[in-house]
Write a structure and sequence with these properties.
The protein has 180 residues and is mainly α. Helix content is 78%, strand content 0%. α1 runs antiparallel to α8, α4 packs parallel to α7 and α6 packs antiparallel against α8.
Length: 180
């Protein structure tokens, strides 16, 4: 139709698919990266291990509440707008988690982070389906799904490495350059 945009091809398509996969990877990585870091974080913030578990739980619960709202948000505001906003807010809340000064502030920022990350996975899938031609969608989704498999494996390894060699805040701050 006149005025319609040409479909993405070549490098632009690959770069867009990579960006979508990277957004998914960040979200999946962040759901597991703090698991092995809990003792270090709890010790540095002078709280018990049982209080430290709220760092993981708060993210998971907030994310679980946000995901079902994704369809309505994307229908109301558009898939691209919701996905990009989610990534930007996820990046901002990751920075806030890294700058947290107390367990209460970290838990609050993790709740925000979990809530804003809800649309990232469904949004990236929707956009991948939209930008790839039907014949290449299954391949694109197959490659994309590797990010959801690598993230949970890489999270604890990376979290442990960062906590052993750097300050725990870097498990959240590493999202900032990736998100930008």
């Amino acid at each position: 139709s006149p005025g319609a945009q040409a479909p993405l091809q070549g490098g632009a398509l690959a770069l867009t698919a990579f960006g979508l996969a990277l957004g998914t990877f960040m979200q999946v990585l962040d759901s597991t990266i703090a698991n092995v870091s809990l003792p270090t974080i709890a010790g540095n913030l002078s709280v018990g291990a049982s209080q430290g578990t709220w760092i993981v739980t708060s993210f998971a619960v907030a994310n679980g509440v946000a995901v079902p709202l994704t369809g309505w948000l994307m229908g109301r505001f558009g898939v691209v707008r919701v996905f990009v906003t989610s990534v930007v807010l996820f990046t901002l809340t990751s920075m806030l988690c890294g700058l947290a000064w107390s367990i209460e502030s970290l838990i609050f920022f993790r709740i925000l982070q979990g809530a804003v990350s809800g649309p990232m996975i469904p949004g990236s899938q929707t956009l991948l389906i939209a930008i790839f031609p039907p014949a290449r969608r299954s391949t694109a989704l197959g490659v994309w799904s590797m990010t959801t498999l690598i993230g949970p494996v890489a999270g604890p390894i990376l979290g442990g490495y960062i906590c052993d060699n750097y300050h725990w805040s870097w498990i959240f701050l590493i999202n900032v350059p990736i998100g930008l």
